[in-house]
Amino acid sequence: MMKNSKSPAGSPWTGMVPVDDTALAVTDTGGPGVPVVYLNGQFATQGYWRRVIAGLGPAWRHITYDERARGRTSQRSADYTFEAAVRDVDAVLAARAVDRPALLVGWSYGAVVGAHWAARNPERTLGAVLVDGAFPHDWLDEAMEQRIRTLFRRMGWFTPLLRPTGLTPRMTAAQQADSNIELGRLSRERELGPVLDSITVPVRYVVASGTSLGSRGDEQEQIRAGLDAATTRNPNIRISAKVTSNHGAILKKDYPAVVAAVREVAALGRVPG
Predict the structure, then answer these.
(1) How many helices (H) and strands (E) in the chain?
(2) Among 69, 118, 154, 172, which is least packed, fewest CB within 10 Å?
(3) How far is residue 112's CA from residue 134's CA, in Å, rounded to a whole number?
Protein backbone atom coordinates (compact mmCIF):
# COMPACT_ATOMS: atom_id res chain seq x y z
CA MET A 1 0.00 0.00 0.00
CA MET A 2 1.37 3.40 -0.99
CA LYS A 3 1.56 6.07 1.66
CA ASN A 4 1.51 9.77 0.97
CA SER A 5 4.72 11.81 0.78
CA LYS A 6 3.88 13.77 3.94
CA SER A 7 4.71 10.97 6.38
CA PRO A 8 7.44 11.80 8.94
CA ALA A 9 10.92 11.94 7.43
CA GLY A 10 12.27 9.83 10.31
CA SER A 11 9.96 6.90 9.59
CA PRO A 12 10.35 4.20 6.93
CA TRP A 13 8.31 5.22 3.91
CA THR A 14 7.31 3.95 0.48
CA GLY A 15 5.19 6.01 -1.90
CA MET A 16 4.89 8.24 -4.94
CA VAL A 17 6.58 11.63 -5.23
CA PRO A 18 4.94 14.00 -7.75
CA VAL A 19 7.32 15.94 -10.02
CA ASP A 20 6.51 17.90 -13.18
CA ASP A 21 4.01 15.84 -15.20
CA THR A 22 4.78 12.53 -13.52
CA ALA A 23 5.35 10.72 -10.21
CA LEU A 24 8.27 8.64 -8.98
CA ALA A 25 8.20 5.52 -6.82
CA VAL A 26 10.40 6.23 -3.79
CA THR A 27 11.56 4.21 -0.79
CA ASP A 28 13.11 5.86 2.27
CA THR A 29 14.29 3.78 5.23
CA GLY A 30 14.18 6.89 7.41
CA GLY A 31 16.11 7.37 10.61
CA PRO A 32 18.90 9.73 11.72
CA GLY A 33 21.72 8.10 9.76
CA VAL A 34 23.67 9.58 6.87
CA PRO A 35 21.25 10.05 3.92
CA VAL A 36 22.44 7.93 0.99
CA VAL A 37 20.64 8.62 -2.29
CA TYR A 38 20.96 5.90 -4.92
CA LEU A 39 20.88 6.88 -8.60
CA ASN A 40 20.00 4.06 -10.95
CA GLY A 41 21.39 2.96 -14.25
CA GLN A 42 19.65 4.37 -17.30
CA PHE A 43 16.91 1.74 -17.53
CA ALA A 44 17.45 -0.01 -14.19
CA THR A 45 15.40 0.03 -11.00
CA GLN A 46 15.96 0.66 -7.32
CA GLY A 47 16.05 -3.08 -6.68
CA TYR A 48 19.58 -3.20 -8.08
CA TRP A 49 20.85 -1.58 -4.86
CA ARG A 50 19.56 -4.18 -2.41
CA ARG A 51 22.97 -5.81 -1.85
CA VAL A 52 24.71 -2.48 -1.28
CA ILE A 53 21.99 -1.42 1.16
CA ALA A 54 22.22 -4.70 3.04
CA GLY A 55 26.01 -4.39 3.13
CA LEU A 56 25.87 -0.92 4.65
CA GLY A 57 23.17 -1.88 7.12
CA PRO A 58 20.43 0.00 9.00
CA ALA A 59 22.64 2.69 10.51
CA TRP A 60 22.33 4.64 7.26
CA ARG A 61 19.27 6.33 5.79
CA HIS A 62 18.79 4.70 2.37
CA ILE A 63 16.73 6.56 -0.25
CA THR A 64 16.03 4.82 -3.55
CA TYR A 65 13.69 5.66 -6.39
CA ASP A 66 12.76 4.63 -9.91
CA GLU A 67 13.25 7.23 -12.62
CA ARG A 68 10.47 8.31 -14.94
CA ALA A 69 8.72 5.35 -16.60
CA ARG A 70 11.07 2.88 -14.92
CA GLY A 71 10.17 0.11 -12.52
CA ARG A 72 6.63 -1.05 -11.90
CA THR A 73 5.03 2.18 -10.76
CA SER A 74 6.96 5.34 -11.69
CA GLN A 75 4.79 7.13 -14.21
CA ARG A 76 5.41 8.11 -17.82
CA SER A 77 6.46 11.65 -18.72
CA ALA A 78 6.85 13.93 -21.72
CA ASP A 79 10.41 14.64 -20.59
CA TYR A 80 13.08 11.95 -20.36
CA THR A 81 16.02 14.29 -20.72
CA PHE A 82 19.11 14.25 -18.55
CA GLU A 83 18.16 17.60 -17.01
CA ALA A 84 14.86 16.09 -15.91
CA ALA A 85 16.80 13.29 -14.20
CA VAL A 86 18.92 15.85 -12.33
CA ARG A 87 15.81 17.81 -11.29
CA ASP A 88 14.27 14.62 -9.96
CA VAL A 89 17.06 14.29 -7.38
CA ASP A 90 15.97 17.66 -5.98
CA ALA A 91 12.33 16.60 -6.00
CA VAL A 92 13.01 13.40 -4.08
CA LEU A 93 15.19 15.16 -1.47
CA ALA A 94 12.59 17.88 -1.00
CA ALA A 95 9.71 15.42 -0.69
CA ARG A 96 11.59 13.41 1.91
CA ALA A 97 12.67 16.52 3.85
CA VAL A 98 16.38 15.70 3.67
CA ASP A 99 17.87 18.69 5.46
CA ARG A 100 21.52 17.60 5.73
CA PRO A 101 24.17 16.86 3.09
CA ALA A 102 23.47 13.61 1.27
CA LEU A 103 25.92 11.02 -0.02
CA LEU A 104 25.17 10.14 -3.63
CA VAL A 105 25.77 6.67 -5.07
CA GLY A 106 25.24 6.38 -8.82
CA TRP A 107 25.77 3.51 -11.24
CA SER A 108 26.27 3.97 -15.00
CA TYR A 109 23.84 6.72 -16.10
CA GLY A 110 23.22 7.46 -12.43
CA ALA A 111 26.94 8.16 -11.99
CA VAL A 112 26.69 10.99 -14.52
CA VAL A 113 23.59 12.33 -12.76
CA GLY A 114 25.48 12.16 -9.47
CA ALA A 115 28.52 13.97 -10.85
CA HIS A 116 26.40 16.83 -12.20
CA TRP A 117 24.34 17.11 -9.02
CA ALA A 118 27.41 17.11 -6.79
CA ALA A 119 29.09 19.78 -8.93
CA ARG A 120 26.01 22.00 -8.79
CA ASN A 121 25.20 21.44 -5.10
CA PRO A 122 28.45 21.19 -3.10
CA GLU A 123 26.85 22.53 0.07
CA ARG A 124 24.19 19.81 -0.07
CA THR A 125 26.55 16.94 -0.96
CA LEU A 126 28.61 14.99 1.54
CA GLY A 127 30.34 13.23 -1.35
CA ALA A 128 29.68 10.77 -4.16
CA VAL A 129 30.46 7.21 -5.15
CA LEU A 130 30.34 6.74 -8.92
CA VAL A 131 30.05 3.13 -10.04
CA ASP A 132 31.35 2.37 -13.55
CA GLY A 133 30.04 5.54 -15.08
CA ALA A 134 30.82 9.24 -15.57
CA PHE A 135 33.92 8.60 -17.67
CA PRO A 136 34.83 11.61 -19.85
CA HIS A 137 35.44 10.12 -23.29
CA ASP A 138 34.35 10.89 -26.83
CA TRP A 139 32.76 7.54 -27.56
CA LEU A 140 29.79 8.83 -29.55
CA ASP A 141 30.15 9.37 -33.28
CA GLU A 142 27.72 8.95 -36.18
CA ALA A 143 28.46 5.24 -36.48
CA MET A 144 27.90 4.65 -32.76
CA GLU A 145 24.68 6.66 -32.86
CA GLN A 146 23.41 4.40 -35.63
CA ARG A 147 24.43 1.30 -33.67
CA ILE A 148 22.48 2.57 -30.67
CA ARG A 149 19.35 3.22 -32.69
CA THR A 150 19.62 -0.18 -34.36
CA LEU A 151 20.13 -1.95 -31.03
CA PHE A 152 17.07 -0.44 -29.39
CA ARG A 153 14.96 -0.95 -32.51
CA ARG A 154 15.87 -4.65 -32.53
CA MET A 155 15.09 -4.96 -28.83
CA GLY A 156 11.76 -3.24 -29.34
CA TRP A 157 9.85 -6.39 -30.20
CA PHE A 158 10.32 -8.10 -26.83
CA THR A 159 10.89 -5.33 -24.27
CA PRO A 160 7.16 -4.46 -24.06
CA LEU A 161 6.52 -8.05 -22.93
CA LEU A 162 8.68 -7.44 -19.85
CA ARG A 163 7.19 -4.10 -18.86
CA PRO A 164 4.66 -5.53 -16.37
CA THR A 165 7.62 -6.97 -14.42
CA GLY A 166 9.34 -3.58 -14.20
CA LEU A 167 12.46 -4.98 -15.87
CA THR A 168 12.15 -2.70 -18.90
CA PRO A 169 11.06 0.95 -19.05
CA ARG A 170 7.71 2.14 -20.33
CA MET A 171 9.50 4.11 -23.05
CA THR A 172 9.54 3.57 -26.78
CA ALA A 173 12.64 2.21 -28.52
CA ALA A 174 13.22 5.67 -29.99
CA GLN A 175 12.98 7.33 -26.57
CA GLN A 176 15.46 4.87 -25.10
CA ALA A 177 17.86 5.43 -27.99
CA ASP A 178 17.53 9.22 -27.66
CA SER A 179 18.36 8.98 -23.96
CA ASN A 180 21.43 6.85 -24.63
CA ILE A 181 22.64 9.18 -27.37
CA GLU A 182 22.17 12.18 -25.10
CA LEU A 183 24.33 10.38 -22.53
CA GLY A 184 27.04 9.95 -25.17
CA ARG A 185 27.01 13.66 -25.91
CA LEU A 186 27.15 14.56 -22.21
CA SER A 187 30.05 12.13 -21.71
CA ARG A 188 32.32 13.87 -24.19
CA GLU A 189 35.51 15.11 -22.58
CA ARG A 190 34.68 18.73 -23.34
CA GLU A 191 31.30 18.31 -21.63
CA LEU A 192 31.93 16.01 -18.67
CA GLY A 193 35.55 17.00 -18.01
CA PRO A 194 34.71 20.51 -16.73
CA VAL A 195 31.92 19.06 -14.54
CA LEU A 196 34.35 16.69 -12.84
CA ASP A 197 36.97 19.44 -12.54
CA SER A 198 34.50 21.64 -10.66
CA ILE A 199 33.57 19.08 -7.98
CA THR A 200 34.74 20.17 -4.52
CA VAL A 201 33.50 17.22 -2.43
CA PRO A 202 35.08 13.75 -2.10
CA VAL A 203 34.33 11.46 -5.04
CA ARG A 204 35.34 7.81 -5.25
CA TYR A 205 34.97 5.64 -8.33
CA VAL A 206 34.38 1.90 -8.36
CA VAL A 207 35.37 0.72 -11.83
CA ALA A 208 34.33 -2.53 -13.52
CA SER A 209 36.19 -4.62 -16.07
CA GLY A 210 35.10 -5.97 -19.41
CA THR A 211 32.21 -5.01 -21.64
CA SER A 212 28.70 -3.64 -21.37
CA LEU A 213 25.62 -4.11 -23.54
CA GLY A 214 26.36 -3.00 -27.09
CA SER A 215 30.12 -2.51 -26.65
CA ARG A 216 32.76 -4.24 -28.75
CA GLY A 217 36.28 -5.36 -28.04
CA ASP A 218 38.11 -3.05 -25.69
CA GLU A 219 35.77 -0.09 -26.24
CA GLN A 220 34.68 -0.07 -22.60
CA GLU A 221 38.24 -0.08 -21.28
CA GLN A 222 39.10 2.81 -23.59
CA ILE A 223 36.16 4.74 -22.17
CA ARG A 224 37.25 4.03 -18.60
CA ALA A 225 40.73 5.31 -19.38
CA GLY A 226 39.19 8.76 -19.83
CA LEU A 227 39.04 8.99 -16.04
CA ASP A 228 42.83 9.26 -15.70
CA ALA A 229 42.98 12.94 -16.65
CA ALA A 230 40.14 13.83 -14.27
CA THR A 231 41.85 12.21 -11.29
CA THR A 232 45.07 14.03 -12.19
CA ARG A 233 43.40 17.44 -12.37
CA ASN A 234 41.08 17.16 -9.36
CA PRO A 235 42.49 15.81 -6.06
CA ASN A 236 38.96 15.28 -4.75
CA ILE A 237 38.45 12.47 -7.26
CA ARG A 238 40.07 9.06 -6.76
CA ILE A 239 39.53 5.48 -7.86
CA SER A 240 38.55 3.42 -4.82
CA ALA A 241 38.60 0.04 -6.56
CA LYS A 242 38.93 -1.65 -9.95
CA VAL A 243 36.94 -4.89 -9.74
CA THR A 244 36.74 -8.00 -11.88
CA SER A 245 33.03 -8.03 -12.68
CA ASN A 246 31.69 -6.38 -15.82
CA HIS A 247 29.46 -3.33 -16.08
CA GLY A 248 26.18 -5.18 -15.76
CA ALA A 249 27.19 -7.43 -12.87
CA ILE A 250 29.11 -5.00 -10.68
CA LEU A 251 26.30 -4.25 -8.20
CA LYS A 252 25.66 -7.97 -7.80
CA LYS A 253 29.15 -9.46 -7.70
CA ASP A 254 31.28 -6.61 -6.35
CA TYR A 255 28.88 -4.73 -4.10
CA PRO A 256 31.36 -4.95 -1.17
CA ALA A 257 33.65 -2.58 -3.09
CA VAL A 258 30.77 -0.11 -3.39
CA VAL A 259 30.04 -0.44 0.33
CA ALA A 260 33.70 0.22 1.12
CA ALA A 261 33.72 3.29 -1.11
CA VAL A 262 30.63 4.70 0.61
CA ARG A 263 32.29 4.30 3.99
CA GLU A 264 35.45 5.91 2.64
CA VAL A 265 33.59 8.97 1.38
CA ALA A 266 31.62 9.29 4.61
CA ALA A 267 34.86 9.21 6.59
CA LEU A 268 36.37 11.89 4.36
CA GLY A 269 33.28 13.98 5.00
CA ARG A 270 33.89 13.57 8.74
CA VAL A 271 30.59 11.79 9.26
CA PRO A 272 30.69 8.53 11.26
CA GLY A 273 29.00 5.54 9.72
Answers:
(1) 11, 8
(2) 154
(3) 5
